[in-house]
Design a protein that fits this description.
By secondary structure, the chain is an alpha+beta fold. Helices cover 16% and strands 43% of the residues. It has a 4-stranded antiparallel sheet, with no helix packed on it. It has a 4-stranded antiparallel sheet with strand order 4-7-6-5. The radius of gyration is 15 Å and the shape is globular. The two termini are 28 Å apart.
Length: 135
């Protein structure tokens, strides 16, 4: 999965401009938000990382911001299956391109987690903020 994660998210349409090709690995990104929208047939995932962009906006540097979050929207979702959810499932993220187009997503494992396929993927939002160093 890290190869697909890096290849997909390091592109110009996703996080490439902010990270200049040095994207944080999936294990450095905490999944903190999952929204399943049956009206839009979509799943939105929100990630938080302390691996701050290597090419941040000047105002982010001026303000001393040190944390970054981003939201990915998967649309045209099919085969959605939810078999459990918890902290363990949120740490296991598998994102892959599917031959012929689209994406396969597995959060957790086949026996406990969220799995689906999606036709499209887009970056919906990014935000930099100041996070404390204490846990």
């Amino acid at each position: 999965m890290p190869a697909d994660w890096t290849r997909l998210l390091a592109s110009e349409e996703f996080l490439g401009p902010q990270y200049a090709g040095s994207l944080p690995p999936p294990e450095a990104c905490d999944l903190f938000y999952v929204h399943i929208d049956e009206r839009e047939n979509s799943v939105t995932l929100g990630f938080d990382t302390r691996n701050f962009p290597s090419s941040p906006a000047p105002e982010w540097e001026e303000k001393g911001l040190n944390a970054f979050e981003f939201y990915l929207v998967f649309a045209g979702v099919e085969r959605l299956r939810v078999t459990g959810w918890g902290a363990g499932e949120a740490r296991a993220i598998d994102l892959a391109s599917v031959e012929g187009g689209g994406f396969r997503v597995l959060l957790g494992t086949e026996s406990s987690g969220i799995a689906f396929r999606a036709e499209t993927l887009r970056l919906a939002k990014t935000r930099a903020y100041l996070a404390s160093d204490s846990p």
